[in-house]
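Sat 14:20. Reprocessing the chain from the morning session after the first attempt stalled halfway. Input below, unchanged.
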Amino acid sequence: QLQLVESGGGLVHSGGSLRLSCAGSGFRLDYYAIGWLRQAPGKEREEVSCISISGGSTKYADSVKGRFTISRDDAKNTVYLQMDSLKPEDTAVYYCAVAVTQCSEYDWWGQGTQVTVSS
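Finished this time. Tokens:
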């Protein structure tokens, strides 16, 4: 069974940090570009960040540039999202997603992990 498993979410105070992990189960993540998306209550899902197959190219939403860092460890079959200087507006369910062709064109998503930032 092919799965994306997110972990690392939780409750943190404003200014704090969290590191999200996205592990592939049953398939290799290094064959794909991997993105992180988020969805806050009452809002549409938005792309936060994406990393290319080789890891040589990354992209970030303007709202998280300079605060979030995406990386991949192919040996561990895992992609990470390091989130620093968190703000209450970062509160959302965070999903990792697989892009067969390129970032922003996602084919399937994990179940998500909740991130809550208190003020």
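The CA atoms of residues 95 and 112 lie 4 Å apart.
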